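Quick illustration for those who missed Monday's session on complexes.
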Amino acid sequence: MAADDHIGALLARLSRPQKLALVRGATDPEGIATGYLPGVEEAGIPPFRLVDGPLGIRAEGQRATAFPSSIATAATFDPDLARRHGAAMGREATALGQDALLAPGVNIIRVPHCGRNFEYLSEDPVHAGAVGAGLIDGIQSADVVATVKHFVANNQETHRTTVSAEVDEPTLRELYLPPFRSAVDAGAGSVMTAYNRVNGIHMSDHERLVGDVLKGEWGFDGYVVSDWYGLESTVGAANAGLDLEMPGVAAPGAAEAADSETEGGDAAFEWPDGIPDATRAGLFGDPLADAIDSGEVPADRLDDMVRRILGQMDRFGRLDSDQTAAEGGETDDDTGELDSQRHRDIAADVAARGTVLLDNDGVLPLDDGADVAVIGPNIDEPKLGGGGSSETTPIHSVTPVEGIESRAEGAVTTAFGVPQIESVSLFDLLPFVGEDEEADGAAEDTADRDQSLDDAAEAAAAADVAVVFVRDATTEARDRESLALPGQQDELVSAVAAANENTVVVIRSGGPVELPWREDVAAVLEQWYPGQADGDAAAAVLYGDRDPSGRLPVTFAPENEYPTVGDERRYPGVDDEVYYDEGVFVGYRHFDDADVDPTYPFGHGHSYATFEYGDAETTGEQTVAVPVENVDNRPGREVVQAYVRPPSVAGVDRPARELAGFEAVQLDAGERQTVELALDDLAFSRYDPEDGWTVDTGTYTVEIGRSSRDVRTTATVDR
Ligand code: BGC
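Prediction with beta-D-glucopyranose bound:
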């Protein structure tokens, strides 16, 4: 039977209450899933479980591989590696009995302070789209539904549940929607709506963006799920195109916590900023039945919701017709895989390959026999991720000290230097989460451990090389207050650099940070949040076992140079409206337009090898080829990037250049390869407010090079 007929026949057997039970989440009897649908046993529809993402599987009370943060995966500029990463997460979800993964997050990095940038991919839509598609393809290759989130314009955590992104149509079309479009084209089975509003309308109720654009124009045939407690209305959401309410049930203890805080319920309880009202649930329960009865929601809308959910269950083998309900959703031959050697390797590969060598005066790679001082307030713990729904608890992890100790042949000494940087977590902000349930990594009392700047400087002075590990602390539901490193870490780096000229700084951050000491140190590495492989990945890159082949997916610049800083209309917004007045001039598009030199541009990152570019050639309507040679005596990985400069057209204000394509290539010493790059339509088109997508006639210059500011050769394309 064709899939549609099969679903149609199944749908015909379901009663209305059964259908209603398939569009609203319920409590997972095992208490493991993030979201749960009970299924309909009589009809052979098994339970369906949704689980967080995107840094690994966050199944309640379970451990799983803690992969690097999404921004690290993006920094690899390697969609094939993203695919392997996605497949590994898919297999882990299966091993833990889960059916859909709440990942990837593909929101454009608009605000450098956003607390969730570590869960996102890029400031550029072509880049985010390509890496996101790789992740989705991988997750779904393991027969797990990928859930691309958060649709759309969820670019800050401050006021995330209420704020309206005031954004014009060309900007939405050219910047914020494309990564979701790429996800749909990659076959994502599910889309999660964002908490925020766009131009005044909550995303769960956004008929134009969810119904018309996503489902209509793009032909998305999977299901649209609300963010958790993020359903704004019954009728509005159902008619807009939302298919599944999650979690569908109030958080245990939420109502009581709200009541007790309001002293008898006189005043309205205020949820902390960034936290949705966790008592809000059941809008797709009885209220939906009533709305169908009253004709406010057409009855066939309920059928469509169910058809979409069952369609994805069927697509990924959850409705195998020869399966009995008792067998549940498990496909017979795939039990998944958890914490296997290959998953540990993938976690380590992504962490190492996503490492960006920002600066190096030659101190790196380290000599095997060098005496190393490992310094930093958190050298004895891995940097797994940021706080919130993506927190994953690993089975194994390697701290920076352990990683370096097991690789070094010289002496290794250690010093904390300054007080520990405490992790922050969304879970600490929840009024109904008890002390003992708080996230891992929450404050430990380390005040009385040995830590002084003098000890750190002494250890540095006595070693050949000082490696200082620094980090930020970010979480879902909170933005960073500043791009400066927290605590006294800047002082620590300066003190160490003054004591040893071979000072290497390894940054662990969710996005751009300021590096006031960067002229005083010998090398700087950015490792994002490396996950469980932390110390091993750091050592592999520091000692040159792995080439640091990451490139920046976000521009690094002084705080006040970003277009969202200094004008509260733009960020964090005024009266719950945030104006995207900069239009498409976000990230490198802004820095080009403002003619400001960033500290490190988008696409930047050194290799230990040296590459030479030959002359680029246009090989097709939208392809260019460029010979690249590794002229060094060591292997290396180059990320060849192509940016398109549009012709100038009177009255049209476009970015100077836009990323059109990229390709990562591994080259042995002396090896030369011609790299072919496909150029994305997006870089040629602009969205005209009157005429829609438009490609202006003229000559487009394709700049090919090592970053958005390091052009090595050009070609032209006439359109
Ligand atoms: C987050 C989502 C997440 C969901 C379930 C929400 O707070 O915004 O990304 O998937 O919770 O944990």
